[in-house]
Structures are given as C-alpha cells and as structure tokens.
Amino acid sequence: MAAETTPSPGPTFDKVAEIIAENSEVARDSITPDSHVTEDLGIDSLDFLDIVFAIDKAFGIKVPVEKWTQEVNAGEKPADHYFVMKNLAARIDELVAAKAA
Amino acid sequence: MRLEYFQMIDRVVSLDGDAIVVESRVPEASPVFEGHFPGHPLVPGVLLVETMAQASGWLILGRNNFERMPFLMTVKEAKFRSFVGPDAPLDVTARISHEGSGYTVTEARLTSAGKRIAEAEILLRSMPFPNPELEAAMRANAARIGLPGYAA
Question: Is residue B90 part of a domain?
C-alpha cells in the first residue's frame, strides 16, 4: 500500500508564492496551495498590481486580471477559480501554454 | 510649467508608438521655492517624479484615445542625479516597457540641456473616467500642450 503523499504544488506555485512574498508583507511560509490571495493572504489591490506585473514579467504573459474580475463580478466564475493559489498557478500554466501554442 | 497647479508639461514634442517626448520650463518664481528652499530654490524631487508621471499619463491617454484615465500607482528606481532650479528647460521622455491588463509600466527620464536629471520606472493604473468634468479638463489640457490628435 502506497503511503499517502501530498501532491507537490509545482514550480509555478513556488514561483508565484515567491513573487507574492517579495511584493507584499506576506511571509513565504504562510502561502499554501489553498490560500486565497485576498481573503487569506490579505493582498490589497496595489500589492496585487505589483504582483501581477512581476508574474507577467516572470512568465512572459499578460495575466488578464480585468477579464477575470469581470467574470467573477458577473457570477460567471467563482473567485476561487482565479484567486486561490493552486488555481492561480493552473491559470498561469494555461496562459503560458496558450502563448507557446 | 505651473508648479502650484501641478501643470508640469508645457508641450508635447512627439508621440510615436510606445514613446512620448515632452518639454517644459521651470518658472522663474513660484511659492514652492519659498519653502524649497529659502534662499536656494530647487524643484522638489517629488515634482520631478510628478513630471515624469504626467508625461507617462499623456502617452497612455494618447494611445487609448481617452478611453480611460491613468492614475499613478507605483514609482520604482527613482533617481535624482542633479538639482533643477528656476527657469531650467526640461525634456522628458517616457517609453512603455510593459502593457498589462488595466495597467501600464513606463521607463521615464528627465534631462535639462542634455544633462541627466532624474529617472524612474512608473506604474499607472488605467480606470474609467470618474466623471465627465475630468475627461473634459484632460482633453482641454491635451489641446493646450499639443498632444497629437488633440491639438487646439
């Protein structure tokens, strides 16, 4: 019987967590895959803008924050879909893949 | 340039793709110089940052056709290399280094008679105009400084 293991959050999660720690007062150790960027980590809109800029640069993408926010406000997507760390990392992976395609 | 009205830009020299060049002349006298500093008038560094931010803002407004108003959010790597006193001619260039979703980053540089004065990386967030008065005032200002496409 295999031992239960926690799946590795992956390099994108690690990089985003590092960026958040560098651009806010949130300690790297307190960021988990299940952390909600604003509700759990308390990132405000200005820090979030700096974080998005750093993500754009690090991954060579343009995170469509305005589109995401509109979708959440319109009730088309739950906020967790974009703003929980493991999901944010997945969305970034999708953007990177779409750019490479 | 009218420091006390935050009217930092006199004229747009060029707006070309992702870059703008503007010029301005520091006034000979201003109440600002009475405090900064008595007997030794210097344009405050924060107003040099404001000048670079306004140049960046005109660049963004020229590109987005006044769809949204840019607001200053972050200033990074600001350096002040030399003093600027009354009557100094100023040349400011701002170039877009990154265009994100709802925000723009510029690299701005300010010189006087060819001498490097200040530079900064500036992040501005573009938001819908909060009211028609501001948009009208910005369009009137664009005509005053000769923003291409909006000259009086």
Answer: yes
* Count of domains observed in chain B: 1
Mean pLDDT on B89-116: 97
A36 within domain boundaries: yes
Query: What pLDDT sits at residue B149?
Result: 86
Which residue range is the domain that position A15 belongs to?
11-100
- B103 touches A: beta carbon within 8 Å: yes
Asked if A50's CB is within 8 angstroms of B74's CB, the reply is yes
| Residues of chain A neighbouring B105 (CB-CB closer than 8 A) | 53
Confidence of residue B152 (pLDDT cuts 50, 70, 90): low
Q: DSSP characters for B97-117?
A: EEE-SSEEEEEEEEEETTEEE
What ipTM does the predicted assembly reach? 0.83
Q: What is the DSSP letter of B3?
A: G
Q: How many domains in chain A? A: 1
B104, pLDDT greater than 70: yes
Domain assignment of residue A37, yes or no: yes
Query: Between helices A11-23 and A85-100, what is the axis angle to 10°?
Result: 110
- A18, two tokens: 């590092």
| Domain annotation covers residue B152 | no
Q: Tell me if A95 is assigned to some domain.
A: yes
User: How long, in residues, is chain A?
Assistant: 101
Give B103's contacts in chain A (Cβ within 8 Å): 49, 52-53
What is the DSSP-derived secondary structure letter of residue B17?
A: T
CATH number for position A19: 1.10.1200.10
Contact (Cβ atoms closer than 8 angstroms) between residue A26 and residue A20 = yes
